[in-house]
Each structure stands twice: as C-alpha cells, then as structure tokens.
Write a structure and sequence with these properties.
Layout (H helix, E strand, L loop, with lengths): L11 H15 L1 H4 L17 E8 L2 E10 L2 H6 L11 E15 L8 E6 L5 E8 L7 E14 L2 H5 L6 E4 L7
Parallel strand pairs: 2-3
Antiparallel strand pairs: 1-2, 1-7, 3-6, 4-5, 4-6
C-alpha cells in the first residue's frame, strides 16, 4: 500500500473492514470487480488534475496536482510511477482533520510529503522520502490534506512549514 496511509488503515483488520465496506457501498462486490481491492500491481491511470499554489516568502509556486479522491485512488497514489515531474504532484484531501500516516511501498520515485493543516498552511514536510520504504511518515497531528511532490522540490523552491496552500479542493482559490 503506497498512499492511503490514513490512520483508518493502520491495522490490517481495520483496512479489511474499510475495504469490505467500500465494496458493499459501491456495489463492486456484486459486479465482480472485487479484484480492485487487492494489493496494487501497477500504476493507476492519471487522475483528474487541478492547479495548486503554494505561497511562500519567496513567491508563488504553481503545481498541477492529481486529486486522489476514492479509497482505491488514495491507496495506489504514486505507486509504480518511475518519476514525478517537478511541477506536478498528488493531493489527498481527507474527509475531516486527522492524523495522516504515509509510506513509500511500491513507490519508485522519491517524494516530498507535505502535510496541510486546517488553516491551509503547511504543518510539516517530509523531504526526500525513500522509494519503496515501509517506514511510516507521519503528519504528527491532524491535517486536512496531504500533498506529494517530487523529492527535493520543497528545498529547491524554498517551500517551508507555515507556507499557505491555495487549491479549489481545499475550498480556496487557485
């Protein structure tokens, strides 16, 4: 599991219960598409994008981010993708402020993982997350969203904790 690293999925039992619940709610179990809940084996198709701006002390940094909305999209995230372009990323918007725990299983490219607080400011950054690592990367407190960017881009662009995130998915401009 690469990217749905929410506390909901912190134990195998909860993960199974949520996946079964997701199947039941979506009707996938009846339609024979239950295979989508297994461990991912390939990159997912590109997801819908939207602009995202990070406003920092040295200016505005523009990105085009994919929106991972469904549990499956969030689970697969950036898995199996060999690169993440410097101006791209993936945004995970959580249904309510909560602990976000991520890891890099099956993720081939290094990522900067940016945790976004309820005030739409960067609460924490994990720079250059190690590809394929199972080490947990934590928000260290509740966040409303998690943003994955190319590894090293936050340092290169001078993006830091406290910078403001603007994106329509967060209820802000961009």
């Amino acid at each position: 599991m690469s990217h749905l690293r929410q506390s909901l999925f912190s134990s195998p039992f909860r993960r199974a219960a949520v996946l079964i619940g997701t199947l039941a709610l979506s009707g996938l179990a009846a339609s024979g598409q239950a295979a989508e809940t297994g461990e991912p084996t390939e990159a997912q198709p590109e997801l819908p994008r939207q602009p995202l701006t990070i406003v920092s002390a040295n200016g505005q940094h523009l990105f085009s981010v994919e929106l991972a909305k469904t549990p499956r999209q969030q689970q697969v995230g950036e898995m199996f993708r060999p690169t993440v372009p410097a101006d791209r990323g993936m945004l995970f918007v959580w249904p309510y402020p909560q602990q976000s725990d991520m890891w890099m299983e099956n993720t081939l490219a290094s990522l900067d993982i940016v945790f976004i607080g309820a005030d739409h400011r960067i609460q924490a950054i994990a720079e250059n997350a190690v590809p394929r690592s199972l080490a947990h990367i934590s928000s260290h407190g509740p966040v409303v969203a998690t943003l994955e960017l190319q590894g090293g881009v936050t340092a290169k662009e001078g993006i830091s904790v406290g910078d403001r995130i603007e994106a329509a998915a967060l209820g802000g401009k961009s």
